[in-house]
Amino acid sequence: VYAHAAAAELRMSRVQALLNRIVEYADDPNTIKTCCGVLSILSRSEDKKTEIANAGLAVILHAMNTHMANEDLLEAACDLLWTLAFNNKPVKASISTHGGIATLLRCVDVHRLNPALLRSALGTLSNLSQLVDNQQHIGAGLPVVMAAMQLHVRNVDLLAFALDTLTSIIIGHERNCRVVYELGLVDFLLDVLKDRNQHARPAVVKSTCHTLAILCELPGVGKGIADAHGIAAIIAAMSAAPLPTDVERIVTVLLFRISKDPVVMPQMIHDGVVVVLFRVLANQRANSKCSETLLATCHILCLLTQFASSHAVDLSPHLPPSVCDGDLLLRLATENASPPLALSIFRAHLSRNPVPLPALVNVSTMESMLTLASFHSNPQEMLQLGLQVLVNLRRSMIAAQPLRSPDKSLAALLLAIRTFPDDVHLLDQVFCVVTSYCLSNTITTHPRTVFGFLGAAMRFLSRFSSAAGWTPQCMVEACRFLLHLMGSKDGLDSVVSCGGVSILSQFNRDVMANDAMPPPELEKLLHAMSLRLHTPFGGSEANEGEGNQPPEQQPPDENEIDDEDEEDVMDEDDDEENSDIDVSAIYVDVRTSMRAALVQSDHADAQLVYQSTRPGGDAAVASAVPDAYPYAVGFPDPSRHATPPLTFDSEFDSGNLLRAVQIADTEYDLILRPDLHTQGYTQWFYFAVANTEPDVAYTFHIVNLHKPDSLFRTGLQPVVYSVQDATCRAVGWTHAGSNVCYFANPYKQPSPVPRPCTDQLTFFTLSFTLTFPHAHDTTLVAHSYPYTMHDHRWHLARPALRCPDVVRQSVLCTTLGQQACDLLTITDFGHGHVDGRRPVVVLTARVHPGEPQASWIMRGVLDFLVSDAPDAKLLRRLFVFKVVPMLNPDGVMYGNNRCGLAGCDLNRQWKAPRGAVHPTIAAAKSVMQTLPVVFYCDIHGHSRKKNVFMYGCDSRKHANPIARTFPTLLSNHWIGRQFVSLDACNFQVHRESTARVVVGKDMGIANSFTLEASFCGADFGVLAARHFNLGHFEDIGLALGQTLAEYAVPDGMNRRTIYECLQTDDCHDLHEYIESTYNQQLADDQLGAIMPLHMTTLVLSERNGSFGRLPRKAAKAKKKKKVVPSPLPSVAVVVAKQLPSPSVALAKKPSAKLSSKKVSSNCVGSKSSSTPPPLALKKALSLPSPKIQDTRLKHHPTPS
């Protein structure tokens, strides 16, 4: 028997014999351990490995589960499984199928304190996790793996091995990444990095950073690392000792993945990432280069510098010259053959830092970049990057640093200006470099190289008159270069031979004819060149009697700064009228001295507390023009101030706060966002503030305002809205604020054209103090009562504006921001033909988003026009009203002050609007050109004058008497007389491209007006020294509507008959009756008769569009012939007996009983509305006639 068994054993394979022995000696752990060891040796052969996997996996795993307490057996079995699974996908899948993953996780859990067994089990799991299905199964045991790993923090080798295993389990598997993140793996890894004892272990640093880099693929992990001070820990690990190349690669990749989240940029800069990255670059150049490390490092530098440039963050404190050297970047770009890498290194240059960085960006940097461009595979992009550095070089740096390779550099610059002949800033900067080189004492270049720029300078000057956007300031350096050349005989001859005399003469005439004032330096240069050429550029008359003195400098144009509207050019009377006492003057000196001290300290205590990145809360919208900040600011530091900072927000409808900076415990600098795609027009402000302490005075300084004057100097206060007061006490917007002052500050305004420091305009500051009564409250602060797109849509959704018999809503056009520009058509749709037969009245508002009072006035007009008031019914029967309540929806939505998304003032585009750029203006003008318009009014707000006033259109030769009629009626209206100042009205035309002027002059509409309402209040009557409130603005709209009715049917006509006609369903031609009555008044020689509104178009057509005086001879000729008004049919009187007496509507206040019982068939004013009727509608339904009210006002003045 024994011999037979021995013979059978010899016939079977050795693998099978070992497996049989494991089965036979299932209760002997030592025998099983020995067999597993022998099988591990045999499994090095692929055929044996397959045989063991096919026949023995179940046997081995059964033995492991049976002897789970024997650590030696389990270690040998894990090593066997590890060897079997190595580089063999079928075996990996088979182990998982036989339950091997569960057995291995059980080993880890039971023997977590045994380092050797734990290493073998983790190594097997790491090998198995290379299959995606196995990753899913192993993910269920991640808590077990993490718990075992955390017990061996001091075991450096095992910790690094465990982290590598964990990385292999989670890489590419989002679910497993989320599991370990929720288990607190990030905090554990950061604690490992913060342990100084681990910094000397590159393997631990590498494994830890590799795991963190995998986790950074999850959203928000990078920010979590920054919030936990992980960036500082990473930098400390990199700085503790030189790292091997592979470890350095892993760490830079980790930093790169963290930097993908823009929120962490401030923390990265503050923690010193830039210095560490430059050290990495230096190490890469000194040792073997790793392209992945270089790419990641340069990409991080690009992101950091781009963030700092766009947010005006000064990087100079974080860039020590001893470490951060620009030559290092250039040498790396030169030595590296990869074009993408070289471009990435180039983009890492910091050419737009608020403070000069001479170690990084200098003339030598520019020279090297231009030289490398000629040898690169993508010379165009390389050249553009080099020229970008050149354009941003400071003039002082150009003058102080000579060219190192003049021949190559000047040749490259000459090629650059020939390649980009329209870039005026590049041309100006190139001539500055050439002139500085010519004036230096180390000229080694051949004269032909310098004279090559002569032709370029002549072409530059000759194109001044035809090029758009070029200003005289940009020509100074070219003229200085030419004047230097004229200092030698050869240079003077060259200038003359190339036609320099005629070119310079024409250039001088073009400069003097330019709208922009030429700088004094340019005038001196032109005068000096004229002396050297013996040619007076300005002609004999210009220089007669002046000797050799340069022309005098003219005073700057006071109207150079664009103002409120086309009507803001004030004459002497306006100056006298607006000579209000500056009530804020007592605070200006204190604020100015405080600001000077702050600037002197370089804003050392200032810290950023709010930065907006989404205009109007829309992440898809971003300005094409970089935001300009008055000064650079540091990052938040809780230790700087004793009190916690306020929280701000403006990412909502019409909000526009860009940045908030805490400069003291209770003082904040506020920076407004310019109009989108511009660098200016900052005046409107609207933001929210919270985290305030009750009864603490907070001072706010808005430091980047553009206008040199404001009503804040004469008593205007901001408006505030407390959410808690609105909820608990029904208190809405109120004026508030103390110590209000408005003054110039030392910060320079950004200019599209470079100017000398002495000519550059400065920003203005609005300073005010607010005290908040409640804790845990949110307060809104604004320039004036906001009227947002949400308010607009809510108002249009009211039942009164949804009645199809009275008003019909349509879309005029779609804006650049894909918003609907609403058009309302209001008329009596139930009587007669509407299209083409009734005259049209056009009303528009809110072309300037920062003038919200225009919308409140428009709301008052609309509420009146759709009401059941007799005057409203009369207007609807006589006219068709085309109303555009929001002419600039994009600007209102995104918190602009004057512009839309086209980056221009839409009220300057009426002359020739383009539908693709100015869709609302083009559509409104197109509609008006097809309609019989008799009246147009554009409603605005005014930030520099008080009262309500209007502007009309006179011709150049004659006054327009028709344009005086409506403002006079409005100023005499019983409501309007409280607001409207007739003396402030103006009828001169200053700008030809505004709505009022284009409609009045080009379309021939005599009644073309702009209505201006002050941000502040009135300076006369019962409202003097008081702010206008929302009720006042709606009353102005009501007065506007009632005055239109008075203009349509002037005094002296029998209104009773007209109102009786309105009560019937029979359609009569009221226009004919009004015309015949007016002609009868003229026949009776009633010289004070007012021409009805609808007849003004006839007068204009007879006078061929001229605004001359009305002919009187025609009226006198008709005196002999008696004109009898055409009577209305008697049926109107019969029907009127069944209705309330019309005289009541004209002379008495309607009774409450009658008003409550009357049920109109029209849906206007229906009780189905869920909102109470506006104030203007209530007044329109219950007001007495204007004459009776006039009598009451004379005897009983309105209380203040």
From TrEMBL:
BP-aspect Gene Ontology terms: proteolysis
Active site per database record: E1012
EC number: 3.4.17.24
Family matches, as InterPro entries: ARM-like (IPR011989), ARM-type_fold (IPR016024), Armadillo (IPR000225), Cytosolic_carboxypeptidase (IPR050821), Pepdidase_M14_N (IPR040626), Peptidase_M14 (IPR000834)
Catalytic activity: C-terminal L-alpha-aminoacyl-L-glutamyl-L-glutamyl-[tubulin] + H2O = C-terminal L-alpha-aminoacyl-L-glutamyl-[tubulin] + L-glutamate
UniProt GO molecular function: metallocarboxypeptidase activity; zinc ion binding
Record family assignment: Belongs to the peptidase M14 family.
Protein name per UniProt: tubulin-glutamate carboxypeptidase
Native source organism of the sequence: Aphanomyces astaci (Crayfish plague agent)
Biological classification of the source: Eukaryota, Sar, Stramenopiles, Oomycota, Saprolegniomycetes
